[in-house]
Amino acid sequence: MAIGKEGNVKWVDGLRGFASALVVLTHISRAWAGNLFWATTAENTTPKLLQLPFLRVLIQGRLGVSIFALVTGYVCALKPLKLYRQDKHEAAFISISKSALRRFPRLFLPSAAATVLSFLICELGLFSVAEHADSGWISQIPPRKGSLFPAIGNLVYEIGAIWIKRNNEYDRNQWTMLPLLQESIKIYAFLLAVAYIRPRYRMLASFAMFAYYWMGNDPVFGMLGFWGVLIAELQFEPATARFIDQQRILAPVLSAVLVFSGFYVASYPESHAEWMPWSDNLTHFLKPNLPENPDLPRFSSGIGLMLAAVGIVLSPRLQEILSSKILLFFGKMGFAVYLLHGTLMKTILSWMVYGISVPADHKDDKGQPQMTRMKYPGHQTLFVCLLFWMPILYGSAYAWTQYVDPWCERMTNKLVEKIKFEETKGNGYIPMSGVQGQGHGPGHHAA
User: Fold this and answer.
1) Cα separation of the two ends of the chain
2) What SS3 class is residue 447?
3) Residues 48, 60 contacting (CB under 8 angstroms)
4) Into how many domains does the chain fold?
5) Does 437 score more than 90 pLDDT?
6) What's the CA gap between 154 and 116, in Å, rounded?
């Protein structure tokens, strides 16, 4: 969608690239610097640089997952909302139907392809270095079956398991696939339900759904999904454009305050928030306004992202930055980076950090064989390795977008063409039932 009177809507692609990079950084931190997720390394000690507010967002991947949830809601709602506002309901219904039909295969096929890749690496024994690593995150590798039929059976099971129990032994990072699919289907159903109400009330309904998931203690895929719908509606709202155009000073200042506040709230540590005054104060500010037994870290990321997203909508300059060619390029590779980074961390990066030789097992005090763990060589070694590994990751992701993604797209298109009605067999239009209005065509008749 081009930049027009509704504003720049490409910025979400740049945001998606930022999100995938955050997920990669957080998993690197989890693997080798887990105490960075604490408010500070120990009570009554000075925090490290990456434990400070704002900077710690870079290593706390919660915000990355939150961005995926918000972007899903925004993208699912974007085209239908625009068509509703143009009084093109039939085109909107067709768009929703096609998007809903394509949604599962467009998630399933890349997910399955990444699982097959990890499966092959596992059965070839290429996770052996990761298995012997002293990092708990890295050493979590899938079981190697060693024989053909049990291995293939386990592969088929794990490909399906991610859509049933949100777990995949070959790639645990895919746990987000099912909730993202569920979120998008809920949003498609919501868009059908609110098709014939005025934009201001549709925005109110979006906010009501957001509030429902807030109170229901779902701070990611429910709450942020409908906040994404609300953001899309807000960007199309003429009053937003008027405010930005007329308030040349207030709008940028308000945007900066919202983005700054958002990243501050999103900096909330995962553990030991009471060890630092700034995070302890956030705890006392947030907790009374949240439901019972809230997931404070995820709520903080969600609230911070909500504030920042409104700030971006109010700032054409920020939208232009997020829509730059470089960020759009990385945004295009965001999903591929998300799917590939775990496998590449447990192979190539592990080989760089620990070497390629696996030590022999040793015996404990009771004479029982024990796996020998390889010692992490330190952050300096890791930093040097990342200078070479990051280009490998993004080069692999680029190759994925050039070859695997187009194949998934072709397979999805073939499936949709195979199962859908021919265009002449239905107009895809859901008429209004007994609602009078102008420009709704069949809407003047009963359903």
Assistant:
1) 33
2) coil
3) no
4) 1
5) no
6) 11
Compute the C-alpha angle 408/409/411, nearest 5°: 65
Radius of gyration of the chain from Cα atoms?
24
Which of 233, 224, 229 has its CA nearest to residue 199? 233
- The percent of residues above 90 in pLDDT, for the chain, comes to 78
Domain that holds residue 412: 11-356+373-419
Could you tell me if 196 and 443 are in contact, meaning their C-beta atoms sit under 8 angstroms apart?
A: yes
User: Which tens digit of pLDDT belongs to each residue from 110-146?
Assistant: 999 999 999 999 999 999 999 999 999 999 998 888 8
Q: By C-alpha distance, which of 203, 187, 221, 200 is closest to 95?
A: 187
Cβ-contact 111, 221 below 8 angstroms: no
pLDDT tens for each residue of 323-362: 988 888 988 999 999 999 999 999 999 999 999 988 888 8
Please answer whether residues 310 and 258 qualify as being in contact, where contact means their C-beta atoms are separated by less than 8 angstroms.
yes
Q: Is residue 324 part of a domain?
A: yes
Q: DSSP string covering 22-59, please?
A: HHHHHHHHHHH-GGGGBSSSSTTSPPPGGGSTTGGGGT
What element of type H or E holds 362? Answer: strand 362-363
The answer as to whether 205 is a domain residue is: yes
CB count within 10 Å of CB 217 equals 16
Q: Is residue 80 assigned to a domain?
A: yes
pLDDT, tens digit (0-9, with 9 covering 90-100), for 168-182: 999 999 999 999 999
Tokens of 220: 């990611």
Burial 357-382 (b: 16+ CB within 10 A, else e): eeeeeeeeeeeeeeeeebebeeeeeb
Burial class (CB in 10 A: 0-12, 13-18, 19+), 214: buried
Query: Per the domain annotation, does 6 fall within a domain?
Result: no
Distance of CA 224 to the CA centre of its chain: 11
Residue 27's pLDDT band (cuts 50, 70, 90): very high
Query: What tokens were used for 130?
Result: 């990761």
What is the pTM (predicted TM-score) of this model? Answer: 0.89
The Cα 382–Cα 345 span in angstroms is 12
Instruction: Output the CA torsion 61→62→67→68 (10° steps).
Output: 80
Summarised one tens digit per residue, pLDDT across range 401-422 is 999 999 999 999 999 888 877 6
How far is Cα 55 from Cα 267, in angstroms, rounded to an integer? 8
